[in-house]
Amino acid sequence: MFHLLLLAAVVLGGYVFLTRTLFKSSKCKGNAAMVGKTVVITGGNTGIGKATALHLARKGARVILACRNRDKAELAIADIQQETGSTDVLFIQLDLASLKSVRCFTEKFLKTESRLDLLINNAGLVADGRTEDGFGIEFGVNHLGHFLLTYLLMERLTEAGGGRVVTVSSMAYRWGRIDPEALVVNRHLGTGRYSWQFFHAYCNSKLCNMLFTHELAKRLKGSNVTCYSVHPGVVRTGLSRNVSLWQKVFIEPIARLLFLDPEAGAQTTLHCCLQEGIEPLSGRYFSCCAVEDVTPRGRDDVMARKLWDVSERLCGLS
Which residues of 66-92 are buried (b: 16+ CB within 10 A; e: fewer)? Predict the structure, then answer.
């Protein structure tokens, strides 16, 4: 009996410890006015993106879901409209795995939308394979597509005054490594048939997000646009939909017990969208609605500049 009580105490203690550390949640307290402002959210039809869209639509923003699948986007829009009463939520097709699609999206947006106040680079995946342009899928979607999207929309962000770019990264950046020269040749951040191999590529892509934000802040210095990267927490989303069946069987019970729901996962993104006074923190990394120091690898000036130059080259911008 004593051993059972001891085991129960250890399990309970472990659960409390994890929910207050690795699986800690937070609450956005930012309350910036959003009426009359326009927001673009990639992957806004599900998970963290949809939860973010719901909150911003409720605050009166014009919300554009930049998604690949029209049917899923329209279902999400119907849900958002029903829950918020907003009639200012719309869909523009965007496939981040296609640089042509990114260009088509930005051309349509710039023709039809007069302002852009928030660009939320939210979409991401863990998978293996190649994009339409021959890039590793995680490099192409998680970084390169968002890089080009941000680059092409920057002028409109600047025009609005006080625009922000929020890029969803991850604490997984800590395990990432990037070789810019190899990127030019291989066009991927890692590949392989096993889940652990493309999870490592995912970590590399999240490091790309960190370095992109770090360099972007420098290039935006002196403008009225700021940028931030965020760790949303460990969240129950469709991010791992491409892992093997046995891994899902293992992960699912843990996810239900410990992982944050999408609404909780959206809080740090919302903080960087809505919290007033964080402009001096442009380029910084946020977790649990607070700025957090990063490892030297995540703020490497030389590597950030090299990654930017390589990204420009691979996108045909230089």
Answer: bbbeeeebeebbeebeeebebeebebb
Tokens of 94: 């965007």
2-20 helix and 245-258 helix, angle to the nearest 10 degrees: 90
* Residue that wins the pLDDT comparison between 87 and 196: 87
Residue 134 gets which letter from DSSP?
Answer: S
Candidates 231, 154, 219, 147; CA nearest to 183 is 147
What does the pLDDT average to over 227-247? 66
Instruction: Note if the pTM is more than 0.85.
Output: yes
Q: Which of 135, 130, 144, 139 is nearest to 200 (CA)?
A: 139
CB atoms within 10 A of CB 95: 20
Q: Of 173, 202, 228, 285, which one is the catalytic site residue? A: 202
**Residue 285 a catalytic site member:** no
